[in-house]
Design a protein that fits this description.
Elements lengths: L10 E4 L9 E3 L3 E4 L13 E3 L2 E10 L2 E3 L5 E4 L5 E4 L5 E5 L4 E9 L2 E9 L6 E10 L6
Parallel strand pairs: 5-12
Antiparallel strand pairs: 1-3, 2-4, 5-6, 5-9, 7-8, 7-10, 10-11
């Protein structure tokens, strides 16, 4: 509650970002609000927990399983995030919450789609282990 705001005029409100723990991202620390006469206003300061996802990816094509080194992993949803893939198939995605997310692996001009399952975790970096994307059989 912030009393004594001027009605119909822009009142500048701030929050102390140093009071928010390090594992959180603050969208804005300052907002302007103009409440009505004898009224109130709800002002939201967007704060979200920082969490990343890390793991390894493999590409399966029939019986052959390869490491898609230096390819790209892209996860779509409300926000699209992508990661280059390391020499041993490592990936690292930021701001990806728990649940199943549609993902696309791009490697040597080929594209493989799969769902990336992210379990619930309190850790700053959620380790998902090794995931495998299976290429669909091509029609002749």
């Amino acid at each position: 509650m912030v009393p004594d705001l001027l009605a119909y005029y822009g009142n500048l409100l701030n929050i102390a970002d140093e009071d928010v723990p390090l594992g959180y991202d603050i969208g804005r620390v300052q907002q302007t609000v103009a409440p009505p006469h004898r009224g109130g206003a709800l002002v939201l300061f967007p704060v979200r927990r920082l969490q990343s996802v890390a793991g390894r990816v493999r590409l399966a094509n029939g019986q052959e399983v390869t490491i898609p080194a230096y390819g790209t992993l892209t996860v779509t949803g409300p926000d699209t995030v992508s990661s280059p893939i390391g020499a041993d198939g490592e990936f690292y995605l930021e701001q990806l919450g728990e649940g199943r997310h549609p993902a696309t692996l791009t490697y040597h001009g080929r594209t493989c789609a799969f769902d990336l399952a992210v379990p619930s975790s309190d850790a700053p970096v959620n380790q998902v282990g090794t995931v495998t994307c299976t290429l669909a059989e091509e029609q002749p």
